Fold:
Amino acid sequence: MKLKSLYILLLSGMALVSWTACNRAPGGRSTEKDASVEVTGIRIEMEDYTNSSGEIESSTMESGEEVVVIPPDGWVTFEAPVAEAGRYRTTVRLSSGSSAKASCWIEDYIENKDGRQYNITGNMAYADGVTVDGFVSLTKDGSPLNKGTHPMKLHVAGGAASVDWISFELLKEHQITPKVLTQRTDGDEWVVVWSDEFEYEGLPDTTKWIHDIGNWGWGNNELQYYTEDRLENARVEGGNLVIEARKGEMGQKWTSARLTTRGKTSFIHGKIEFRASVPVERGNWSAGWTLGDVYRDELSWPYCGEIDIMESVGFEIDDETGDGKAHASIHCGAYYFKNNNQPTAITDVKQMQEDFHLYGIEWTADYIKAYVDDLFYFTYNDNADSLTWPFDEPQNIILNLAMGGGWGGAQGMDESVTSQKLLIDYVRVYELQ
Structure:
């Protein structure tokens, strides 16, 4: 990236960085958007680490930079003062003298009350880095960081890593949702109050959707890079929203798209439904769901609440018949999948790709019910307290197609597949009148 200005302010041994730069695509290439944007970030010199798994060696390079040598399966801790909530590009700069087998990942909120490991980068392998002037830069985009001081840990595996510094560069500010719709649920007839019928052509409607971006793994070790404003990954054509995962483009394993109404409109109660055709090959993971609007970073989840209206994985779909399974689930402070206690239900669906099916929920102050093609198969009604019921607060709608990950890739990937498509005919939100 060509820097036009660079200002470094030292604060408590850490560098706060502000610069102006051209927009960059994944892998560091400039995009077609030539307008300069103000970018802010922080850089932490590794010699300023606060704790370690054992004795850590230091070394000075010929260029004068000091690196910290972390052994395999070792770690160091540090603090990152984040000035603004948003999605960040995370970079770890290693000496090229590091082990070729070395990899690392960054854990956020290491002192969290639940004893969880918040992996905000996924695996970053030395072999995938970019070498310049004797140093290797490992990057992941989209790491979610809230404003405040973050106690973090850099984990190293596979081989020793000689680390110079870690930086976090703001790619996209967190978008506050300006509009919340609260739906009545005590009337006689369901009436549409918000929708996207996808009766247009081109990019998704920017008055209704924004893009989440990046390849940080999304908490599930997923393979895709979610792009923004890229027709190849998200477009409206022929009356459908097409979310397409594509293999081996933009220097990424996969590219895809994740659309959300966050930053535009969020919802409390009502009926939410979408009509969709899902891909069927092994390795994909389709989803239509909601997420609490208070989400800022991984510490927010699952307390913010999540309603999975429909999830589908390719390995559950029969290659010959196209018959598969739809999943509906609830995640909240009391129940979530990392504790393996989330309330969930599964129903069989015929010809999930050949035919469009209607997936939806009815959401009131007392219960959430899920259905496929108007057949109800799941009810959740534990509204005892905020840990079991965060669902009187706004939720935004998310549509995405992931590849691989802890569930989508649980039975491997079909390596012959180069494209997968999730087609959505419409999304509608109703209230009773």
Observations:
- Residues 1-24, 27-38 have pLDDT under 50 and may be disordered.
- The first helix runs from residue 405 to 408.
- Residues 3-173 form a domain with the Jelly Rolls fold (CATH 2.60.120.260).
- Helices lie at 405-408.
